[in-house]
Amino acid sequence: MVPIIVLVGAIVWQLALAGHAAWLSANAARAAARAAVVGESARDAARSALPRSLERGLLVERLRSGAIRVEVRMPLLFRRLGPAVPIASTASLGTPE
Description:
This protein has helices at residues 2-37, 42-48, 52-55; strands spanning 59-62, 68-74, 85-91. It is α+β, with helices and mostly antiparallel strands. The protein has one domain (2-91). Helix 1 runs antiparallel to helix 2 (42-48).
C-alpha cells in the first residue's frame, strides 16, 4: 500500500509543479508584454518575473501580432523520466502609438 501512496503523491506533486510553472510563465509573459509596450527589454522583464529555477531554458519571442511569447521548462520531479517539458504563455497589451 505504501508504494501506491508514494506514487500517487509523486503524481500529484508533479501536477502541482506543472500548474505552478504555467502560472509563472503567464505572469512572465504579462511582464514582458508590459516592458515591450514601453520600449524596455521583454527578455529582462520576463527573467525578473521568474524564480531562478525557471530561468534556465527561458525563451522570449515577439510574435508577428506584437504579442510576447514566453516559454519555460517545467521542472520534473524525476529528471530520468525524460526531457523537460516546455510550457509557453502569450500576452499582448497592444502596440504603442
